[in-house]
Amino acid sequence: MISSPIPTSLETLAPMAAAMENPLAVSSNVKHFLRHKLCMSFAAHSKRSGKLQVVSVHQRVKATSSLYSDCDVDVQKPWKTADARLVLEDGSIWKAKSFGASGTQVGEVVFNTSLTGYQEILTDPSYAGQFVLMTNPHIGNTGVNPDDEESSQCFLAGLVIRSLSICTSNWRCTESLGDYLAKRNIMGIYDVDTRAITRRLRQDGSLIGVLSTEESQTDEELLEIARKWKIVGVDLISGVSCKAPYVWSQKTHSEWEFHKDQNQVDNFHVVAYDFGIKHNILRRLASYGCKVTVVPSTWSASETLKMKPDGVLFSNGPGDPAAVPYAVETVKEIIGKVPVFGICMGHQLLGQALGGKTFKMKFGHHGGNHPVGNLRNGRVEISAQNHNYAVDPASLPAGVEVTHINLNDKSCAGLACAELNLMSLQYHPESSPGPHDSDPAFREFMELMKASKK
Length: 454
Ligand SMILES: NC(=O)CC[C@H](N)C(=O)O
Hints:
- By secondary structure, this protein is an alpha/beta fold.
- It folds into 3 domains: 10-63, no CATH class; 84-228, 3-Layer(bba) Sandwich (Glucose Oxidase, domain 1), CATH 3.50.30; 237-453, Rossmann fold (3-Layer(aba) Sandwich).
- It contains 12 helices and 21 strands.
- Strands 12-14-13-15-16-21-20-19-17-18 form a 10-stranded mixed beta sheet, sandwiched between helices.
- Bound molecules: glutamine (GLN).
- Residues 126, 316-319, 321, 344-345, 386-389 line the site of glutamine (GLN).
- Its EC number is 6.3.5.5.
- Belongs to the CarA family.
């Protein structure tokens, strides 16, 4: 049996597999390999010919069902024809095949450039009111599993993809993507030209769309729904926030932990405002040793301060930051009294609380490959992002420092104000999905809390 190191490429796996007497012996290793979602091909030792073969998992999955007894093979019916329409507000109509739930749904269409992590994207509450179009053409191959959920629900309007994997091939998989979406009443479409839609969104900006499987609705009716629907100026965080406070204690699983100085943990109490918080923010705080109390978006500043936290985190969340003045008021009442950390929506609310303004971007940033310049140390972080709004740095008062910029468009990606013990990032240091380059931001928050305790 192969134990360590985990093979990271086909080249390293192939000789190992060749040395195998029994092809089944490779299974746990291959499973581990697939768990990291790195590669969809592997080398296998053919029982029949005795030769090493390099085959795709998709071909392999049926032939070696014993290796993949936990896989769900979902064969696409080749005779399925387009049964759904995506009607965009610009009048374009995109025929597609449906999966997941059926019906009619309206939302804003945004494109996401992440190569992996569709389950974390589906459960990111910040996508409430939006259709996520994945630019990676092949989706569904790793299915879904109970551990990759970023919230307890899918809040997005729907999923738009080019090609739906005909089967799942990951040992962690417990359900196919289609079944998962159907159970959560979320619509999906595939066999649609996602590149053409992405080019349109890049050129014209985010567009409202209506997705429908209902033949009774005419194209004109769907277009009218799209043109009447608004996302700007709407409070979406009240629909995704928790209803009552709760304590969070789960850390990042030891197998996945990448913060190595575990003995350096501090025992700070952090109150985290849930504007649509992703579980991995909470896991990262717990991994750094924090005791975390999560509170609803409407939780008053005075109640928070009574809890005597060492720090307050303002979370990510969906929609227009200018549509939630009550949250900005809460932020205003807290800053300066305890160290604070704002992430994404939390960063935008901090920007407003400091006197700045937010604006809607043309098509936003959604993906796991956005370069950010850390202006304090000169480093570039490849980051996970998901936002349509940004803080206008020119609107900020003196004393507020822009600490990070998005290197694609130079937009503001981070703020700090030393006098107020405040830091914020427009992107996602918790990633999930995405690279971990920005995780040290949590360490910085610990330092901020430590310094203010002295
Ligand atoms: N991920 C987030 O917090 C999103 C922030 C904000 N709702 C935006 O779209 O810009």
